[in-house]
Write a structure and sequence with these properties.
By secondary structure, this protein is of the alpha+beta class. It is about 35% helix and about 20% strand. Strands 3-2-1-5-8 form a five-stranded mixed sheet. The chain has a five-stranded mixed sheet with strand order 4-10-9-6-7, with helices on one face. A two-stranded antiparallel sheet has the order 11-12. Strand 6 and strand 7 form a beta hairpin. It is elongated and about 95 Å long. The chain binds dinuclear copper ion. Dinuclear copper ion binds next to loops.
Length: about 300
Amino acid sequence: MLPLVLTGCAGRHNWLASAGAEAQAVEDLFWVLILGAAVIWSLVIGLAIYAHQTSAPRKEPQARRFIVWGGAALPTLVVGGLLIWGMVILRDITAKEGDLTVRVDGERWWWRVIYDGPDGPFTTANEIRLPQGQTTLFRLTADDVIHSFWVPALGGKMDMIPGRETSLTLTPLEQGNWGGICAEYCGGAHALMRFDTIVMPPDDFRTWLAAEAAPAEVAADDPGWQVFLDEGCGACHTLRGTEAQGPVGPDLTHMASRKRLGAGIYAMTPENLSRWITDTDRMKPEVDMPAYPHLSGAELEALVTFLMSLE
Ligand code: CUA
């Protein structure tokens, strides 16, 4: 019963309330394994108790037949059947030609997400949107340490390993915002390395993809944009279509359209963003971004207003 107790995660992280085809296949297999194991375990224990208590004399041919069927034939059948079933599941959850492809790079401690847009690949971060009912192939890698990409409600987890590429397919069946987490200890902020996975109708997804691929809308005389430039934010962050092309931190081109900041941990509100800029290391211990506590009230307000306009 331990696995049942340890599932712990409820709601949008619940892998036993699957919202995707891959999660459903794995969940079915899980229940058959658990219930089958319980039946076989009870049978073996029952027989052991019976054998211990009975005083009936042993009949050789019967005993041999029992060993052959119960000890060799039955396990071969059960394990062989499960193996075939597992291979069928594996085949079913493999991506096919023409599926949508999304690249995700694990960074310390956030997610770089690369989509194929209408005009070629573009980068975003920390939020993944997927079309309902369609299979997406994830090509996964990592920058410097090993992470693990996991959206429990949608399917299995997969390691992200520096220097090589792994893959995973997800076919979300239910609309919603499903929680994603890093499932491999990767350093100080491992537990704060999260993302939203938003499943939307295919038409809405295409509209979103086109909007997300567009460059940032920046007014040259925006006072917040001036603060952004003066403080050197563009050395780490990219705003597509502007001179800010920093490749180090998350792409901020449409950051205000994301649900959360700090890699899935705080609601995207002006208050949280303001605290994020001035108290970065307290909002997320061991984060690589330095804090900017020296900004004046007016500068901070202008910067936050500017960033919150990047939808
Ligand atoms: Cu990334 Cu744990």
